Endonuclease/exonuclease/phosphatase family protein (Solicola gregarius), 314 residues
Amino acid sequence: MVLLGKPFAAAAAAATALTLLAAPGAAQADGGARAADRVSVLTYNTCMNDACRKAYRLGASGKRLAKIWKHAVNRDGGKKRADVVVLQETDWRVVGVDGDKLTKAFPGYRIASKRDGRWILYNTAALTRINDGYVNVAGAADEEKAFPWAQFASKAHPRNKVTVVDVHFASRSDKPEQAKEIRRLKRGLGEQLPLGTRTVFAGDFNILPGEPNARLFRSTFAKTVGGLTDATPKRKRTNTLKPADVPKIPYRPSAGKPIDHVYVGGGLHVVKGARYRDKGEKRVTSKRAERKRWNRLVPKRRSDHNAVYAVLRW
């Protein structure tokens, strides 16, 4: 598998992934690290496509984008606004072929890269885009499942660079294909990352902590990124629906465990207290009382996922 798109001098890193290049002489983060030495990442499966609309009868996309802005992207009135926003299942038929509805809903952001319902946006006040492209992880030569990537430089410290790759692995009902996509991703990104690379993988993995494919993912990239740590709390349940409520869901999610992750490679650290639990999303359970409320709750929902946010320092 080869890296597609514009020429990319250094192989990037993976599943909705983020690669941070620590510049020589860049300030090493410690307990008193400056905000300029940090980058915040938000990943969110918006469930904004025909399949979600038919399965869950979610509300109008425009209203949901406004809620996503309020409760996730522009968190706490902008005080915790993400530098990089990575989206999955956000159909161009809903948000526009160029993402014009996204940029209208998220003021101050621009589209950095896009492919197959996956979008990477960046906060122009914090970052400058310097490159972009995509990687094809489909099995057959005549098929395409592409993960877009984009490379940024910090405006405060231009020698600190960030490469983001937006990845969404196969469904939980197809674990063999997940494993194949992980290996194709490794080949597509190259066998080695450039010296000094800092890597973060963020997105809808469809993989629970402790599952074989979680171990496969970490081991596959261990040599190139120096080990991976999951910034998502192990007991944070990021999917919000249960099969008892929506029979079309082909799997039973484990209570209290995430399938959306932000994996952090060696040399990067998660800023303590910077993670947050998504606000504004009502949990739907399998209780009979909740099932009776289903038709009233669904149009008010933003997605069948909660957003995951982390602040990283290097």
About this structure: The first strand starts at residue 3 and ends at 5. Residues 1-16, 20-33, 243-251, 283-287 have pLDDT under 50 and may be disordered. The chain has one domain: 8-25+35-313.
